[in-house]
Amino acid sequence: MPEASKMKKPDVKLVLLGDMNVGKTSLLHRYTDRKFKDTVSTVGGAFFLKQWGPYNISIWDTAGREQFHGLGSMYCRGASAVILTYDVTNWQSLAELEERFLSLTDTASHDCIFAIVGNKVDLTDPKAQLSQDSSGVSEDQTEHEEERTEPQVLSSCPTPPASPASLSGITVHKQVAHEDAMALYGRILRYKGLEEKSSLPAERMCFETSAKTGYNVDALFETLFDLVLPSILRKRNENQQCPTIDLEECRGASSKRARFCC
Amino acid sequence: MERDGHQEGEGQGVIIRNPPLEINPPADTLATSLSLLGNHMFPDQVARDDRATADTQEPGELPPSEVPAQEQHLDAEPVSNQENQLETEETDNAECQNNESTETANGGTKDDAADNDQNDSGEFVVTMLAKAKLEEQGIGVKGRSSPLLEAGTQESPALMSHRDEDVTADSWRQHRKHIFVLSEAGKPIYSRYGSEEALSSTMGVMMALVSFVQSGDNIIRSVYSEKHTVVFLQKGPLVLVCVSSSRQSEEQLRGELLYVYYQIISMLTQASISRIFEHKKNYDLRRLLAGSEKILDGLLNLVDSDPSFLLAAIHCLPLASSLRDSLSQILQKAITTNLVFSILIAKNQLLTIVQEKTVIEDTRLEPADVHLLLNLIGASSAFQAGEIWTPICLPLFNPDCYFYAYISYLDPPECTVCLLLLSTDKEAFYAVADCKRKIEEAMCAQNSLSLIAKAQSYSVSQVGVSDLRHFMYKPFDVPDNYRQLTQFTSPEMEAPYSSEEEKMRLLDLYRYMHSRIHSSSRPLKLIYHVAERETLLAWVTSKFELYTCFSPLVTKACAITAITKLLRWIKKEEDRLFIRYPPKYSTTPNPSKSSRGGKSDQQDSTDNGFLSLL
Predict the structure, then answer these.
(1) How many other C-beta atoms lie within 10 A of the C-beta of residue B518?
(2) ipTM for this model
(3) CB distance A66–B292 less than 8 Å?
(4) Is B150 close to A7, i.e. CB distance below 8 A?
(5) Mean pLDDT split into 10-residue runs, chain A, 262 residues
């Protein structure tokens, strides 16, 4: 049922959520345009289509501002993956994920996967500053990083939350440790009523990225794309089984709207 | 007047040197309270900095007192009124035209400075407003932190340039036009320059003025000084204040404040703002407007530089009528349920607009609503990537409900041609996005994009009237126009008005002419105005409103002949210059969901998350 409102073209839907100024648009820009540029505060939501092999992946980059909070559930409807984004230098941005954004994902697909992403890690972590801007190098890096996704996670774990800034004269204090994000991941699973054992492990679904340097950004999106593939295949099968799906979909969508109005 | 309590001790430092000429109690006590507040607000020297402000004057702008001498009125009424009298006529009780000055005895070190001729209330208020945050110096001047966030490190510097301004600096005070928005509780909501935190006590003073006058069953409208006009506008729970040295009329400035108000409404709706403040009087509205400052900044820049706002009319891009018609037909064909407006924009000017039939029978689309849409698009470069789906309220259409706007550029990466589709259905994104694909395909088939790329505004030389440098023509008689969008046409500003300063100077002259034509106390029909470097003629009839600018050597007779020729040229070209017959379509799906029903459908404001905040 949650897939019902989705239209023909995109095979799967991925949503970026998180407080304003955490860097959602920048992450997406970095991934799609290989660039980091100044963005302005997103209005409403921005829809992108990404070709991933033979599949069309739609990505909703949502506004983090409270002004648009009410739309969140609409953007999330039927989503197969939700990227909850926070700013590692801002504790409140992690807290907001739980307080404001988690409930929006109620309309997501039942098998929706969650990723928790701490952005702006270049401000706190010398390792993330090393990444290069040029796309040639970051292509290289992509593979490199994918291989070491887990080691990277592990290596940042031991960093005590209190004193990461002393590493190389970095001025910004890291307010959110990787463990905090992983703890939140656990709470999200519980909120969703999912078994921790049968779900994807926190180590795999908690990322620390830098849209500015490109650090870990490709790894984030590509990991998610790979993980939502089963969802695409399942949906394709459903569509083949039922050629009259369009009518069903329409009715499903409108009855759903009625439900949300009340 | 919550501040009155703790400043009695300082009261004796204030001397009201020139008591108000008209003795009316409210103004009198207001003056006292102004002084009291002022003294409370700036413990340091006051008047010295004023010198610097006093010397700044708009380049080339005539002092008002010289204007009547150079001006000849062609209309029948005899002209005896001096500019100054006009202004006085407009003064009402609540306006404090009283001349006063303050002397700060505080510290006793700046007595000399205080002797300066700081003898007008407006300047005084401005000074006071500027000085008010001295006591708060260091608070929030550097960066504004979102009220939601503890750490203020998240903002990107490029976004915050104006916000970072030091509000105690002279440069801050010399801005041509300040705009402030605050809540009735005196909470800062928006300031055009400088961060609201740093200005919170300044805004407190403004609110004190408003509520003091209110307590006397009166409404503060404006404060005049030699150099500044301070205009107040109260709209629901919001108070908007403009401090301007631009010499625009009070009516014009109030109109601009109204645009600011409408822009805020377009993002939040009037209903939700009232509801929020009903629940919580001291709510910090910046929570909801955070991130939208850029849109308000952009609006204010547009208001200053684009005559559309002054004329309350739409400027559409001149286009061969056959091309405009074919574009309209493309839009007309690509429709879906609940689609209400399809708008095509190039270079920030309207190409065509197609409207839903029944909706437009109910209410017409106001130019101001289109201006707000254009500003939203212009101010958000985020629109250049991807397809946007966002709620937006058209405040003049219906201030309490949302439309859902689909915004997408048709020519990436140049991003000059923008498609805007408005639906009443929140869930319609995919259906509306399909309309875009259809439009894209059709435009591709007809090669429309490259034809649009060739379209451009015209040069005044095409009119073929010598001595005519520029004009603005707003017709009232375009067929079908009275029920539709009010439009105007105007050529590019060319030499000698190619620099930004000169453009602004010409616009200021137009604004001056406009204020005379539309003066509430003594409206004029025709003005022939010999300015220093050009001659202007403004003329309003039942069929049009026209502003023309000639070279300075033109004679009155020449100007009249030129205007006749100009009007003939416009008549000949009007199919190209205006959207003559805005096309319509019908998308109301079933009787149960007519446009009316559709509109009220939108009032599911609980769905917009505002209540959850309270």
Answers:
(1) 16
(2) 0.76
(3) no
(4) no
(5) 44 92 92 84 87 88 86 88 95 93 90 93 85 44 38 37 45 86 93 85 92 93 90 75 50 44 40
